[in-house]
Amino acid sequence: MKSDPVVSDLRCLKYLVEGTIYYKVNYEDNYKILPQRAKFPLLPKDTTFERLFPKRLPIKNTKWKHLQELKTVLNLDVHSFYDNLPYSDNNKD
Predict the structure, then answer these.
(1) b or e along 50-65 (b: 16 or more beta carbons within 10 Å of the residue's beta carbon)?
(2) Origin, by domain of life (predicted)?
(3) DSSP string, the chain
(4) Domain ranges of the chain
(5) According to the model, what pLDDT value does residue 91 have?
(6) 46 CA to centre of own chain
(7) What's the Rg (C-alpha) of the chain?
(8) Among the listed residues 82, 81, 87, 21, the one whose alpha carbon sits nearest the alpha carbon of residue 60
(9) Spatial separation of the C-alpha atoms in residues 22 and 35, rounded to whole Å
(10) What is the separation, in whole angstroms, between the first and last Cα of the chain?
């Protein structure tokens, strides 16, 4: 709505341990509860999803090479992920 406050209208925020957040748009006002989006329900731990493809789809060779160049700024523990990406010479630009 047009009269709803926006971020720049906030004057005070109060966070409670249980996750409730209160706000004020004027210092003299009483705190109001900040509306929050509903959280998505958690899936059961035994939930499995059907594979969309029988195997990982290959990326273009040029994209794979560019991703290899990124490894110079990434931690060593993620290099194997980039090394093992499937790529195909048939997918050239």
Answers:
(1) eeeeeeeeeeeeeebe
(2) Eukaryota
(3) -TTS--GGG--EEEE-TTS-EEEESSTTSPPEEPP-PPPPPPPPTT-----SSSSPPPEEHHHHHHHHHHGGGS-GGGHHHHHT--EEGGG--
(4) 1-34, 59-91
(5) 54
(6) 23
(7) 24
(8) 87
(9) 9
(10) 48
Residue with tokens 């194997």, as numbered in its chain: 80
Instruction: Provide the pLDDT for residue 40.
Output: 82
